[in-house]
Automatic annotation (TrEMBL):
Keywords: Glycosyltransferase, Transferase. Residues 15-251 form the Class II Histidinyl-tRNA synthetase (HisRS)-like catalytic core domain. Gene3D superfamilies: Bira Bifunctional Protein, Domain 2 (3.30.930.10). Coiled coil: none annotated. InterPro entries: aa-tRNA-synth_II/BPL/LPL, HisRS-like_core, HisRS/HisZ. It comes from Pseudogemmobacter lacusdianii. This is ATP phosphoribosyltransferase regulatory subunit. The keyword Transmembrane helix does not apply. GO terms for molecular function: glycosyltransferase activity. Pfam families: tRNA-synt_His (PF13393).
Amino acid sequence: MTAKSIIRAEAEQLHAALLAAGASAIEADILLPAGTLLDLYGEDIRARAYVTADPLNGEMMLRPDFTVPVVQAHMSGGADPARYAYMGEVFRRQEHLDGRAREYMQVGYEVFDRDASKADAEVFALFDKLLAGLNLRPETGDIGILMAAVRGLSTTERRKAALLRHIWRPQRFRALLDRFAGRAPISATHSGLLQRLAAGDPLDLVQAAGPLVGLRSAEDIAARAEALLEDAKTPAIAAPEAALLYDLLSLEAPARAALEHLRGIAPMLPAILPAVEAFAARLDALASRGIDVTRLPFAASHGRSTLEYYDGFVFTFQGPAGLPAIASGGRYDALTAVLGAGKSIPAVGGIIRPGLVARLRGAL
C-alpha cells in the first residue's frame, strides 16, 4: 500500500467511528470563495492559504479547513442541533515550517448543540477514546475567559478592541498590554510622531504631506491620527487590574486546581465570572464522561496560536516532540452568528490528522 492509501484507510476508520457516535456525514467544496475567509480572518489568512483567481467567481482559496464551510452549510438550513463528521484534504502554505505537509488529510467532528458544557465534554471525550493507546498528551484552555477579562477592563473601548483583535498573536498582545498598563516606555519614534500630530490639525498635516499613496483617504488617515492622540491621553490600566490579567495569562495548572484559582480572582475581576462558571460546568461534564479533571492540563493562554474563530474551550492532543498536534479543536459560538444571517447556535468541534495517527501506530 502507498502512504496515501494507508492514510486514507486510517481516515476512513476514524470517520466511521464518528458516524457511529451519532454524526451525519457532510462534504465540503475544495475550492472556496476567498471573500468569506478574508472577512473572518483578515488578510493574515493569505500567508497560510493557497489563493487563486477564478474568471467567473473571483478570488478563491483551496480549502484551509472544514469548519467554515460546515458552519455555512448548517446555518443555511437553520440553527437546530446537529452533529457532523467529515474527511478530506486541507491545504496550508507552510514555508516557515520545514517538512510540514502542504496538503494533508483531516477527519473532523462538529457539534451544534445548546448545552455547551455537555457538547464540549462530548467532543473531547470522544477524541480521547479514539486516540487511546497512542500515548498522547492532552492540553486544554479557554479563550472565553481571557476575552471576558479583556472586555471587563476599566479602559477605553478602543484599547479593549485592540487587545481582543490580537489575542491570537501572543507577542503583539503582550506588547499592547505592557503599553496600556504603563509598563513599557513609549519609543522615541512614537513620541516624535505624537508631538508632530499634536502640533497642527491632522487633516492639514496629511494634505501638506503630498500625494496619497495607497487605498486610505486623507480622512481615514486623519481619523487614525486623532485616535492616536486620544489614546495617548488615556490613563494606564490600573495596576491591580493589570496584575490580574498578567496572572491570568500565565495560569497553568491541572484543570480543577485552575478552576479554584479562577474563582479566587473572579471577585476582583467580575467580568470573568460567567466564563468561569461555564468552565466549572464543563469540568463536571468531562468528569461524568470519565475524564480525570484533577490531572487534565489547563493553561489560560492555550490555543492562542490557532485559528481565530475559537472563543471558548480549546484543546489539543500532542504527540512526540517535533510533530504538530495530532488532534485539536474548540468552541466557536460567534462564528455561527456571523455566518447565520440572524440565527446562531453554540458550536464546538475538532479535527484529527489521520496521517499522524497512522505514523504513531507504526503503519507508516
